[in-house]
Design brief:
This protein is an alpha+beta fold and 237 residues long. The protein is 25% helix and 28% strand. The longest helix has 34 residues, at 199-232. The chain is elongated.
Length: 237
Amino acid sequence: MIKGIYTSALAMRQGILRQEITANNLANANTTGFKRDRLFVEELTAAGENPTTDPLSLNTRQCTEFTSGAFNPTGGPLDLALQSRGLFVVSDGQTEYYTRDGRFQRSADGLLVDVQGRAVQGDGGSITLPAGLVSVSPEGVISVDGTVIDRLKVVNFDDPQTLRKSSGSAFTKSDAAAEIPMENAVVRQGFLEASNVDTVKEMVDMISTARNYEINAKLLTAQDETLRHAVNEIGRV
């Protein structure tokens, strides 16, 4: 009976975590380059361990899906999308960030920056664009009026799950992340990558999680009531 209470309580805690992740996915459904998250829950009990030790602890893992979103045409010369694996690299001067959000623009001093004002990185560091018509080849080579300026720095990671999510659709690198240059990245100029969030699926998951939470709440109440009777009434006989 006690085990049943713990099981229902754990299921309810999982439901809360899943709802938080689903809500965040839905909130970022229209965020360019956003990657949806999923929750994995691992079994804690192993042979020789006491299953009642910290019975309400959860060994959870939040994973990010790096599948591509839809490519939406914009026609903007500085709107770029990666039709391949990999991430653009941007920097605020102290930290490098990794993103699929290619909404770039030319700053007042000519720097190519993202929507947060962070400098887009190329093979030669921060990219500075002179005035003129910008073109970007599928290989990521940036030219202005036919003159080559630099090549976009696109990287990948041996284990993308080691990346940490930052604001918007950007990531930062953990100590365990190994950066791998992407020599065969494919860049599309005049396109932006939408998030990979399927709003219909997320809504179905949210409804399913809410129903499971409600069921486990009722089970918890029923088990608690049965335990109360066992303690307060059967014990008198």
